[in-house]
Design a protein that fits this description.
306 residues; mainly alpha
Length: 306
């Protein structure tokens, strides 16, 4: 096992973790505050990537494109909430799952109609296009470090927003007891809209940041949505702190497990069996982690207090 490879994969795991947090932060608040199961949250990540690709191509500058993509992702999320999702709040979870799954199918086809089925590429900003020497023999792309730093900065700002501001107090109160908050005179509908729009913008930001290193294509948010729900379950529904810690755990376990699982198993099995078992076991590690957490803490690591 190479120490250099371990460092690289650890950074890759952190990058995946902060991306999962950006998506999970909004979704856990939507689920915790609104008790609304939104399977279509992953398409906000996809829409953010497409908007960043479009506006970057129009302006010729990634940062101008990002500045236009974020409010556009926010507006798109608010429009979805206003025209579709708010009519589902009073329905049971099965209706919400079916409706939001239909939205996934619709929007995946919509982006094919608008931008085409072929993957789009976004150039890495020239100022961050190189690599940095982290240690002798270890080069790491600067843009991936920017993604990690941006995610950590937003996690810090979001933590301050949720714990130190009035709107954060209302969000936490809504996650604890939404009917009581409404009974005290708070416009719970407006609170729901703010939470939903902010969550959509965070997911869009994650998509925009990852666009320069991944292909922008229809359905790109579907697989991440599954990991996002795992993060929410592990961290505790409605908890920003839980989402952050769980996202880093899932990112590291998934990345390191896929990279080093077969190597570790070679200590107990012959190489062929270790390789085969490692490939089969690696995708299961995050679900094993989720099962272990739920065995000891059925509500997750840091659930919103009821």
């Amino acid at each position: 096992m190479s120490l250099t490879l371990l460092y690289v994969q650890t950074l890759n795991g952190l990058q995946l973790g902060v991306l999962l947090f950006l998506i999970a932060a909004g979704l856990t608040l939507v689920f915790g505050v609104m008790d609304f199961v939104n399977l279509a949250h992953g398409v906000q990540y996809m829409i953010g990537a497409y908007l960043a690709a479009m506006f970057t191509a129009l302006t010729g500058n990634f940062f101008f494109g990002l500045a236009l993509a974020l409010p556009s992702a926010l507006l798109f999320g608010l429009l979805l909430e206003f025209f579709i999702f708010r009519h589902l709040y009073a329905r049971d979870h099965l209706d919400q799952v079916l409706a939001t799954f239909g939205i996934i199918l619709t929007l995946n086809q919509a982006v094919k109609v608008i931008w085409g089925a072929a993957p789009l590429s976004v150039p890495i900003p020239e100022i961050f296009s190189g690599s940095v020497v982290l240690m002798p023999g270890l080069l790491y792309p600067v843009w991936r470090l920017v993604i990690i730093a941006s995610g950590l900065a937003i996690a810090l700002l979001l933590g301050i927003l949720v714990t130190k501001t009035r709107i954060g107090m209302l969000v936490r109160a809504g996650a604890t007891n939404a009917p009581m908050v409404s009974a005290l005179g708070v416009d719970i509908g407006r609170l729901f809209m703010i939470v939903f729009g902010f969550g959509a913008m965070l997911a869009g930001f994650a998509g925009a940041m990852v666009a320069p290193i991944l292909s922008v294509e229809p359905g790109m948010g579907d697989n991440l949505l599954i990991l996002t729900f795992v993060v929410i379950v592990i961290g505790g529904i409605g908890s920003i702190r839980g989402a952050f810690i769980a996202a880093l755990m899932v990112g590291l376990v998934d990345t390191l497990g896929r990279s080093f699982g077969p190597s570790i198993l070679r200590a107990f099995l012959d190489p062929a069996a270790a390789a085969q078992t490692g490939r089969a076991l690696a995708p299961m590690l995050i679900y094993i982690l989720m099962a272990a957490v739920l065995f000891f803490r059925p509500a997750g690591l840091f659930p919103a207090k009821k």
